[in-house]
Amino acid sequence: MNASLTLxxxxxxxxxxxxxxxxxxxxxxxxxxxxxxxxxxxAVLPLVILLELGGGLAIASGLFTRWVAxxxxxxxxxxxxxxxxxxxxxxxxxxxxxxxxxxxxFLVLAAHGAGAYSIDGWRQxxxx
Length: 128
Known about the structure:
By secondary structure, the chain is mostly helical. The protein is globular.
């Protein structure tokens, strides 16, 4: 049961990043413009897409999970601070705390690993 719950948790954490990364590809110009309006250079957008889409897929599959989860936790907190720190806007405040909550989930994943139903788990079993 723990392996199944860990898999579902990984998929839940990963899905928002996979969808968001893909959305940034399909809406590249608008995303770049939004980032620049928030003071973030648009030139970093390819790195953001790589982190969201690539990191999301890595978490979903359980590949290098502990390290990727640490990076995703840091990314979640950084984007909360940069894009959602306007607490006068209730929607932005909710998004801020959503990002902090996702970071918490990633930290738990970093501490406990990907579980048995993952590439990391498979690699660990075959290495023994």
